[in-house]
Amino acid sequence: MQYHLVHLNEVYDVGIRKENDGFIVTIGDKEHEVSELVARENYLTFKIGDHRQSVYFAQDNKKTYISLDGEYYVVEMTSPASSGSRVAGLQQENSIASPMPGLLVKLAVKIGDTVKVGDILAIVEAMKMQNELRSPIDGRVETVNFKEGDQVDAFQTIVEIEAQNTQEAQ
Fold first, then answer.
1. What is the Cα Rg of the chain in Å?
2. Which residue from 69, 46, 72, 86 is spatially nearest to 154, judged by alpha carbons?
3. Quick check: is 90 in a domain?
4. How many structural domains are present in the chain?
C-alpha cells in the first residue's frame, strides 16, 4: 500500500508491506521493521526494533489524523489520480490550527493577549485525548475564531497571532 504522510506542510511517500510476522514501513528511502502490532479503536501499539510505540488516530472520508509523541500527522491514501498532490491548509507560522477534528475544550487566550513561543493557546479533545495547541511564535493574539465548546475540523485556524516586532521590543 502507498500513502502520503503530510507533516508541517511537507509530503512524504510511505509504503507498507507485510513481511513474516510484521510489516516493513518505508518512509522516503528508510525502512522500518514493525512488529507486535495491536490495534484498538482509534489506538495502536507496536514495536519498531526494541522501541514500543503508541499511536492515537481519527479518520474522516479522505484522511487519517495521527498523534504520535506529541507530533501530528495527516495520512492520505494515494490513488493514481491524486498521486503527487499536496495538502493545503496546514498550520502557518502565525496561526494555530486544530490538527484533527475535535472539541475545543479550553481556550487559554483572548484577543490582545501577549504570548510567547510554547504557550498553550487552546486544548482540542479528540478520541478522548487532549491535544495542547501551543504558540509557534512570540506575539499578540490578533484573532480568535472559536469559543470553548465549539466543534472544530482538522486544519481550521483557532487563533491567529501578530508576530512581535523585535525592533519595538528593544
1. 18
2. 72
3. no
4. 2
Q: Are 25 and 37 in contact (CB under 8 A)?
A: no
Query: 101 and 47, same structural domain?
Result: no
Q: Please name every residue paired with 30 in a beta bridge, in sequence order, or none if there are none.
A: 27
In a domain, 154, yes or no: yes
Contact between 89 and 101 under an 8 Å Cβ cutoff? The reply is no
d(Cα 74, Cα 67) in Å, to the nearest integer?
Answer: 9
Alpha helices in the chain (DSSP H): 166-169
Q: Look at the chain and count its residues.
A: 170
Domain hosting residue 39, numbered range: 2-77
Are 99 and 136 part of one and the same domain? yes
**Could you give the 3-state DSSP secondary structure of residue 115?**
strand
pLDDT tens digits, 105-143 = 999 999 999 999 889 999 998 777 788 888 888 999 999
Helix, strand, coil tally for the chain in percent (to 5):
0, 60, 40
> Which residues fall within 8 angstroms of residue 29, CB to CB, at 6 or more apart?
none
